[in-house]
Amino acid sequence: MKKFIVSFLALVIFSGSALAVEYSAYEKKAFYDGFEGGMFYSLEQTLLQRGIPQAKTSKYVTALKGRLNRTQLENATWSCVAKYTPQQLAASQKAVADECFAKWVDDFYGKNADLINLLK
Question: How far apart are CA 55 and CA 62, in angstroms?
């Protein structure tokens, strides 16, 4: 899971949705849009690289997307993310990912472990 976190955080930071020093509602939304997209893209690519068929991978990722509660994600992570400037986020991706998102990611996948059967 750590690989997913680092991969999608890197996508978010370097995807053109750079955050301003003062975060507006727009920047917050852009950050989480990028985070969400990057997380699911990274997961899908990793599963495909591990030999999981496209149909099963797509079904699993779609089911996870359906269970994502964006408000809970933001509430659980924003106070941590917001204390970093964009430059700090870019310079310390792994540390920020571990600090701000590791617990949420572990909880999210743990709560949705029943979906793993879609990959079999």
Answer: 11
User: CA of 43: how far to CAs of 48, 65, 67, 95, in Å?
Assistant: 9, 11, 15, 20
More confident call, 24 vs 117:
117
Judge whether 30 and 19 are in contact, CB under 8 Å.
yes
Residues spanned by the domain of 66: 2-119
pLDDT of 50? 96
Looking at residues 89-113, what average pLDDT do you find? 88
**32-55 in b/e burial notation, b at 16+ Cβ within 10 A?**
bebbbbbbbebbbeebeeeebeee
Count of structural domains, the chain: 1
pTM: 0.75
The span from the CA of 18 to the CA of 33, in Å, is 12
